[in-house]
Task: structure prediction
Amino acid sequence: MTVTAREPDDDAIAAHGRLFPGGLSTLAATDPELVGYFDGFAFGEVPRHTAGLPERTRLMAQLAATAAVGAVAGHRALLGAALTLGVTPVEAKEIVYQAVPYAGMARVLDVLHATNDVLAERGVDLPLPGQSTTTPATRAADGLAVQRRIVGEERVAAMHADAPADLRHIQELLSANCFGDHYTRTGIDVPTRELLTLAMLAALGGADAQVRGHVAANLRVGNDRSTLIAVLTALLPFIGYPRTLNALAAVDDIAPAPSAGEEA
Result:
């Protein structure tokens, strides 16, 4: 029996047209069945379960995930959609910069080049205005301050105090580089950066302790359970079930759903 390739539903078709105006993947000709499944799932079904999440935020989280895993082709495609829907060039570059301390420059480098290519194709002059707010003299103190805000003062103090003498420099680098060089930048606010970081860590896999830490950090900066679930649901088509489910388990453990009595 021959089965005709499934067509995406009307919501998915409309979303695809809005995100990729005039664009039809070459895979539609070579792999119509997979494209039919994926488009209906990623652009129709999943967005219906994340209706409370702004479309820009959903796209930024998906860009964070593709940047973290070095998915150049996927990142390029999503970046075009994100820019079409109002994500700014500064935000696009800040997402990639934010991925560097979590995924490493080796993995992010090709994504950065692809981002620059897409921006240049759209007539954006590079380099963009600088977003750094620290200097070599202030980055350590400023980084420690924002780290305490995000992670919690007691937790940060314990991380530094409990580090063996020969590993203490890692905690100092974390404060000055990850937080001082990156989280202090303008262009994206801290709560959004924390959502992006969670998206990156979930996409990477094998970072369960860090996922748990940044679920807690998201809650500290004002991103609630429903927002975290929506972001992780939005990542599902792009990072798969195992990594999404692992991250959702961390959310469910650290920010459990309210009981029926609490809801009342």
Notes: The radius of gyration is 20 Å.
